[in-house]
Amino acid sequence: MTYEDTVSLSPYHEKKDSSGTSTAALAQPLPPAPGGAGPDGEPGDVVAAFRHEMSAFSAALRDLPAPLWDRPTRCEPWQVRDVVGHVITVLARVPDMVAASAPSRADTDPITYYRGDERFSDTTNADRVRSAHRRAAVSDVTALGDDLADITRDVVAQCTGQPADRLVRTRHGDAMLLSDFLVTRLFEAAVHGIDVADAIERPAWLTVSAANHLGHMLFGTDSPRAIELLGGDPAIALRKATGRSAVTDDERALLTAWGIHRLTLG
Do 86 and 128 touch, CB atoms closer than 8 A? Predict the structure, then answer.
C-alpha cells in the first residue's frame, strides 16, 4: 500500500444484480444512529465531533515513546511521525480558508471532494509525501504532538460560531460548505488516526461522534446497518470501506451497492 488509501465515493443509488434483484435489499435505510448528526448537520455539530476526535488523537500521542514515532505505517513511505505531520499539514490550511473571502455557491460535497482527479495525481501525491516529511523533520518528536493540539485549537476557534451557510474555497478550487469541508478533515484525522493506532499496536480511538459523522458520509442513513454488516465496529467498518482491511466477497458486494469503490493512490 502506498502513502495513503482512500475511497472513490458516489452517492447511494439503487443497483440490481444479474437476476434483476435490487441490491438495496441488502442495506435497507435505517434512521440515523442515536445522537449522530445527519449529512446536513450544523457546523457546530461537526466542530464538536472534530474537537472530540482530535482530543483523542492528541491524548494517544502524549508520552508516546520515541521509538514508536519511527514505526512504519501502511501509508508507505511514511512513518508514524510523517502521518502525524500530514494531519497537521492538512488541518493547518483551515484557518486561512475561513479567513479568506467566501465563494458565492457550493459545487462540491464530502463525497465528490474525494474524486480521483488531479488532486490525487502522482505529482500531487509526491508533494503530500514531501510536505509530511518536512513537517515531521523535528529533533524532538513530542513537538509534533504539541503542534497537533495547537492546530486543533486554531481550527476550532476559527470555525466555532460560523453560520450554517458559510462557504470556503479549498486548495483544489472546490467551493464547499464549511461544515462539509470539516467532515473531510474529520475523515482525514480518523483514518490516519487508525493508521497510527495500527502502527503502534494500540486500539483505535475513533470517537462515537466521529463515527456517526463518517458513517453518514459513507453510507447515509444506512450507516447503522452498514457498520453491523462490515464487522459490527465503526473502526473495523472504516478500515474495510477505505481499503485498510481485507473484505469478503459479500462485503465487497455491499460496498459496491453503497457506491464505495477502493482507489489506491501513489
Answer: yes
Helix (H) or strand (E) run with residue 85 in it: helix 80-92
> Residues near 218 by Cβ (< 8 Å), separated by ≥ 6?
7, 9, 226, 238, 241, 258, 260
Separation CA 211–CA 208 (nearest Å)? 5
- For residues 171, 5, 213 and 226, what is the CA-based torsion angle, rounded to 10 degrees? 150
φ/ψ of residue 175, rounded to 5: -105, 120
Q: Which residue has the higher pLDDT, 126 or 52?
A: 52
Burial class (CB in 10 A: 0-12, 13-18, 19+), 107: exposed
**Is the preceding peptide bond at 77 cis, omega within 30 degrees of 0?**
yes
pLDDT digits 0-9 by tens, 57-75:
999 999 999 999 999 999 9
Average pLDDT estimate for 145-159: 96
